[in-house]
Design a protein that fits this description.
heterodimer, B: Helix Hairpins
Chain lengths: ~170, ~100
């Protein structure tokens, strides 16, 4: 019961924030709505016993990426962009396509819903006990060590790439 | 209100995905297009965590971490490109960047 209440609360935050993000004229308002949406997603993680990802979501998304976005919004002059049309000329085609995809997804989720009706309660003593963070560390550093290292190389490439892009003269 | 099942989470993530797609396809401001991409990636993460919870398997959370890593890299490079674009063309509107069109 409590779970359902919190789920609907966080779902409202997520969807409301997302809709405001997409429709606001002012980019700063969009960014703040996006923060609300991301915090809602973090709450959903907590609801599903993914505590580590909850912390990562808050620290990385709300603390890192959103500050980056706000920083760039301040850096780039958006004033005259805010005065012009918000949507491009093909918006009705895009809306049509998205509606079609939405109908498809709704149909198939409805059709397959019985296959994954979670209802079965979490099995007691999941795997080898330990906290969520401990389990993630175990799997991440044993099974997924190579992808982890590749991700670190990817981040290095992204750092160098963004500096090259943003710098006036190398 | 019945119990919350995985289906609820999938429906929520589908809705978030569609809202993000609308943002990517219809907005002209590149900053907001990048924000909509973040929304799409978050929809993916909700799905991964829901199935991780459903199957009692932590692998889904590992994949969510990798998706977040990708989102960070994408945001950093995208905003760098945006700054370079603004310096050269004085615009942040996606449909005014039409150098390759004829």
């Amino acid at each position: 019961m409590m779970d359902a209440l919190f789920f609907y609360l966080f779902a409202t935050l997520v969807l409301g924030g997302a809709i405001l993000t997409v429709t606001r004229r002012n980019a700063v308002h969009s960014a703040i709505s996006l923060i609300v949406s991301l915090i809602g997603v973090a709450g959903l993680y907590l609801l599903q016993q993914a505590e580590f990802l909850f912390a990562v979501q808050i620290v990385l998304y709300v603390g890192g990426i959103m500050v980056l976005f706000l920083f760039v919004i301040m850096l780039v002059n958006l004033d005259q962009a805010a005065k012009q049309r918000r949507f491009n000329r093909q918006w009705w085609i895009a809306l049509l396509c998205v509606t079609a995809v939405g109908v498809e997804i709704a149909y198939f989720v409805r059709k397959g819903a019985s296959a994954f009706s979670m209802a079965r309660p979490p099995v007691a003593a999941v795997a080898n006990a330990g906290g969520n963070t401990e389990q993630i560390a175990d799997v991440l550093f044993r099974q997924y060590l190579l992808p982890f290292e590749i991700a670190s190389v990817l981040l290095l490439v992204a750092v160098v790439g963004s500096v090259v892009m943003a710098k006036k003269r190398i | 209100m019945g119990p919350i099942t995985t289906t609820h989470y999938i429906a929520l993530s589908a809705a978030l995905l569609l809202i993000g797609t609308i943002g990517v396809l219809t907005r002209r401001n590149i900053v907001i297009v990048l924000m909509s991409i973040e929304l799409i990636l978050n929809a993916v993460n909700i799905n991964l965590i829901a199935f991780s919870h459903n199957l009692h398997n932590v692998n889904g959370q590992i994949f969510a971490i990798f998706v977040i890593t990708d989102a960070v890299a994408e945001a950093a490079v995208g905003l760098g490109i945006l700054i370079a674009l603004f310096r050269n063309k004085e615009t942040v509107l996606a449909d005014e960047v039409d150098l390759l069109k004829w």
